[in-house]
Write a structure and sequence with these properties.
Among the domains are: about 45 residues; about 30 residues, no CATH class. By secondary structure, the chain is an all-alpha fold. About 70% of the residues lie in helices and about 0% in strands. About 10% of the residues are buried. The chain is built from 5 helices and no strands.
């Protein structure tokens, strides 16, 4: 697999909002799929439910399920409790949880954590 990182540059704010909305829905879909995989749902049922719930096409839903399954398998291989997985990064979560920062810096970190 080849991974390419790129910075998206938007000509207007509307395009940026559309992409951010898509990213949020996909991220939520992946987290939802992870929870349902823990409950024992199969892929076909999960795919059908996720497409209706998050208004994503089947390719995006398949990718979300695949990523959720990978996170679940990784957690089990590392002998961690799969129910205690934190999406968005544990360090960032701890900073937000402790609330040692205030104002704009806190809001920036909160937004960053929600978008992961």
């Amino acid at each position: 697999m080849i991974v390419i990182q790129a910075k998206l540059i938007f000509l207007n704010q509307q395009d940026k909002q559309i992409v951010l909305d898509l990213m949020r829905r996909w991220s939520s879909c992946m987290k939802f799929a992870y929870k349902r995989l823990l409950e024992g749902y199969d892929r076909k049922t999960l795919k059908r439910d996720l497409q209706g719930t998050f208004d994503l096409n089947s390719r995006y839903v398949d990718d979300a399920i695949m990523k959720a399954r990978g996170v679940l398998e990784s957690s089990r291989q590392l002998d961690n409790n799969p129910k205690k997985v934190i999406f968005g990064g544990r360090d960032l979560f701890k900073k937000l949880q402790n609330r040692h920062i205030n104002g704009k810096e806190y809001q920036k970190l909160k937004t960053k954590w929600q978008e992961k």
